[in-house]
What does this fold into?
Amino acid sequence: MAQRTLIEILLPELRAYATAICQSRDAAEDLVQDAVERGLRSDRRPELLEELRPWMFRVIRNLHYDELRKRRVRREYSAEEKRLSDEAGGPDTARDVLIRLAFEKLPPETREVLCLVDIMGLKYAEAAKVMDVPNGTVMSRISRARRALLDVVDGAGTAKQEVTRKT
It folds into this structure.
């Protein structure tokens, strides 16, 4: 039997399983659609119905848990952003613009390490792999990069204060 036909035979069971593990029918339908798409694209899908059935259930399960993980990470990120914003006394647009302008003035290699560690949230070891350097190099570069960013920001802040005093 053709693979498409085998998957069509399994559709009612796949929908039932997806509905059982999802919070809504719409999410279950999306999950089944994604699983079928993945199943049809895969070169390694089983050829026999009795092997395809559990394989498709695993695809649905894995896709579901991947989505739950994504949502959790997004929630944690949003909560952290809110916490940092609240600690800073709410959004400070002027300060954000100042920091972005200061960031753009830094050399590319300095921006790279700041982006990977402070913006993207990579661990030092992960950033070291990306940049193909030892961990210690990342640690020293991030330290120098943070200092350079602060120097640029403090310099801009000092210049702003000077302009304010003169007017």
In short: Residues 49-87 form the longest helix (39 residues). Residues 159-167 have pLDDT under 50 and may be disordered.
